[in-house]
Amino acid sequence: MRLLNPRHQADQWAGVIRSGTAILAFSVGVWTTHFIGMLAFRPDMPVSFDVPLCVLSLLLSIAGTALAYAIRPRTPDEKAATIASGLVLAAGIGAMHFVGMRSLIVPGVVHYDPDLVVASLCLGGLCSIAGISLMTRGATVWASVLLALAVASTHFVAMGSVTLELLGRMDVTPLATPRSYLVLAAAGACFLILFMTITASALDRHFSSRLATEARRFRALADATFEGLIFEQDGQIVDANRAMCELAGIDAASMIGRPLSDLIPGLELRSTERESPVEYDMRLPDGQTLSVETLWRSGADSGERVVAIRDISRQKAAERRIERMVRYDPLTGLANRELFEQQLHRALALSDRSAVGVALLYVDLDRFESVNEALGHHATSQILIQTARRLAGTVRETDTVARIGRDEFVIIQSLTEQSTGAAALADRIVSEMALPFSVDDQSVVVTASVGVALYPADGAVPRDLIKNAALAVRQAKHDGRGRWRYFEMGMELLLRTKRSLEHDLRVALKENQLSLNYQPFVDTATLEVVGYEALLRWDHPERGRIPPADFIPIAEECGLIVPIGSWVLTTACAETVSWAQKPIISVNLSPAQFLQPGIVATVADVLKQTGLPPKRLELEITEGTLMADTQNALRILTSLKALGVKLSMDDFGTGYSSLSYLRKFPFDKIKIDRSFVSDLEDDSEAETIVQAIIAMSRSLRLDVTAEGVETKQQLSMLRALGCNFVQGYLLGRPRSAAQLEHQAAKPRWHIIDHDGPRLVTTPAVRSA
Ligand code: C2E
Ligand code: CA
Ligand code: CA
Known about the structure:
By secondary structure, this protein is an alpha+beta fold. It folds into four domains: 193 residues, no CATH class; 93 residues, PAS domain (Beta-Lactamase), CATH 3.30.450.20; 162 residues, 2-Layer Sandwich (Alpha-Beta Plaits); 268 residues, TIM Barrel, CATH 3.20.20.450. The protein contains 26 helices and 29 strands. The strands form seven sheets. The chain has an eight-stranded mixed β-barrel, surrounded by four helices. The longest helix is centred in the first third of the chain and has 46 residues. The radius of gyration is 57 Å and the shape is rod-shaped. The termini are far apart. The C terminus is likely disordered. Bound molecules: ligand C2E and calcium ion (2 copies). The site of ligand C2E has 23 residues, from strand 19, helix 16, helix 17 and strand 23.
C-alpha cells in the first residue's frame, strides 16, 4: 500500500518499478496465503500438487491484480472504476484460489458447496471494492486491512465449502510435486515478497527523502528571491512565495485558489513565455495599486506556470521625479523651458488647424537684480514662488505658464479674439504684479514688465515669437517698467542700439567720458545759491552728448549703475570740497545703488576720502526705491542719516506718493517734480497740489525744493505758496565745475519778482 500511495511523485521508471513490485507483492501474497493455508490442511492421505496448475494459479493472481491496478480509480469520485477494479481484484483472487485448489492431488474427489463458493466470492468482492475505495482516499491502513480481509475471506470461506470424498485412488500426474516442495516454494515466495517490498520501500524512502529535500530546497529558493513568484494553473493561484505575499500584503493561504486576475487585473498570460517584462498595476488590499513588472514561464508539465512579479514602484517614482525635473521648474513647479517649448509648438500647430490665435506673453520682473542684492536669496525665492502663483492665477486652465529664466516667465495664451484677450491678460498681470509681496512679514513691491507677441503676425515659428515677445518686454522696461507692450517692428533696431550703448557705457566709465554738471538750487526768498545738484553727463566719442535719461536706465538694467554711481559720488565730493562758498552738493542715488548692501559704507568712505563734511552732502532718492522693500530702505536711510548727510526725496508726486513714506522715513527735504511746476501757470489743480505738498512738508518740518522752474511767473507763484527752494533753468542751467568757476564773479540773472524788476548779481552763495 505504501508503494502504491507514495508520499512523493518519483520519476517514471521509479513509478513503474514501484507499482510492479506492489502488484507482485500483492499477487504473490495472495498465492502464498493460499498455499500456506493449504499446508495447514493435513488429511490422512498422501497429498501432492500439480505444478503447472500451481504456476497457473500464481499467474492468474498476478494478472488479476495487474488488471485491477490498471483500471483502478484515480479519484474517490470514480465509482465505476472503483467497483470494476474491486471486482477484477476479487475475481483474480478467486481464480487463483480455485485453480490452486485444482492443483491439489488427493486420492478422492473434491466437492464444493455452491452457496459458500458464492459467499466467498461476494465477500472477496465487497472487501476489495471497499479496500480500493479506501486506498483512493488515502486511508492506507484501513485499505490494507480490507484487502487482506478480501484475500483471507475468499480463501477460507471457499475452503469451508470444500468436501473431500476419498476414493482410494490417486491420479498422480507426471508433474506432481509432494507437499514438502510446496513448503519450499511457499517459503521462497514469502522471502521473495519480503525482499521485494523491503527493497522497494527502501528505494522509495530514499527517493522520497531526496524529493522532500529537493522540495524544501526549492521552497527555500523561491522564498529567498526578492521577486514575487506565483504558481498559476488555469488562471488560479496555486502557490506563492514569501516575497509575493509581502508584496501583495496577503498571506499565501488566502492567496491560493484565487484567480490571478484578482491580484493583477488585466494580466494576460499567453501561451508563449514572456521573456521581456510587462508592466501592470497590482491591486493591494487597501485599495491602492502598486506598479509591478511581470515575466512568466510555463512549468515542465502539468500546465502550471510560474509568474515572476517585481515591485517597480520605486523605479517608477524615480522616473516620475526625473520627468518632473526634466520638465518642471523645481522652485515654482511651473513648466520649465523644455516643456514650454513643447507646449508652444503644440499650441502653434493647434492654432494652424483651428484658426485660434496664440499670444505669447513674456513677463520679466523689474529691477530683480537689486531686489536680490538687497533682500538675499531666500526672499527672492519667495517672490519668485509668489509670482508663479499670481501668474497661474491670472490665466485660464488651457493656458500654459512657464518659468524660463531666473525672473523670466512666459504665458502661452490661446485666443479666440486675439488682441483684446492678450491685452486684458497683460493688463491683469501688470496690475496683479504691482501689489506688494509679503516676504518674511515685510511687504515688498516688485513690479513686472510684460511683452506680448501674437501668432502668426509677430513670428511664424516659436523661436521668432519668443524673441519678439522678449523684445517687447525690453521695450516695456525701457518705457519705464511696470507696464506692457505689444511687439512692434523696429523694436529690434532700438534694442540693438541699446546693447551697443551698454557696451559703450562700460568703455565710457573706463575712459573718462563721463563728467558732472552742477545745477544750483536757490533760496526762494533771497535767491542765494544754497547748493548744487550733481548731474551726470556722457560725451560719447561718436554720438556726442547722450542725455542721462537715455543711458541711466540702461546702466540700471545691466548693473553698471553701481560703479557709475560711486564714481559720481566720489567725483562730486572731490570736485566741490574746495569750493569757497561751501555749498550743499546734492547727488542722485539710483534705486539699484541705494539698495546695494554696501551703500552706507561707500558713502562713509567717500566722505572720509574726499574730506567733504557730511552736512554738505545731500542724497536724492526717488519714492519708488523705498517701495521695493520698506524695512530695508528704512534701515539704510537711518544709517545714512546717522552719517550726518541730508536726505531728499526726489521727483515727489510722480510715483506712489504716499504720505506715510514721508512720515516713516527720516527725510530732510522733498523735491516737487518738474511736471507740477510746468503745469502751475495754466492748471489750477497743479497749484492746489503744490500748495498741499508745501503745507504738508511744513507740518512735517521738511524743506521743499521745486524743480524745473523756467519762468518768472512760476517763481513768483512758488514764492507766494511758501516754497523754500527753487531749481531750474531760470535760476541756472547745469554747468561743469570749470564753467561755474569761470562765471563766478559775473552778474547773471535779471530776476523780476512781483515787486518789479530787480538786478541780481551772480547768486551769492549762502554757506551751508
Ligand atoms: P532729476 O534728478 O530730476 O534731475 C533734474 C533734471 O531736470 C536734470 O536733467 C536737469 O537738467 C533737468 N532740469 C533742471 N532744470 C530744468 C528746467 O528748468 N527745465 C527742464 N526742462 N529741465 C530742467 P538731466 O540732467 O537730464 O537728468 C535727468 C535725470 O537723470 C535726473 O533727473 C536724474 O534722475 C538722472 N540723473 C542725472 N544724473 C544722475 C546721476 O549722477 N545719478 C543718477 N542715479 N541719476 C542721475
Ligand atoms: Ca535729482
Ligand atoms: Ca528730480
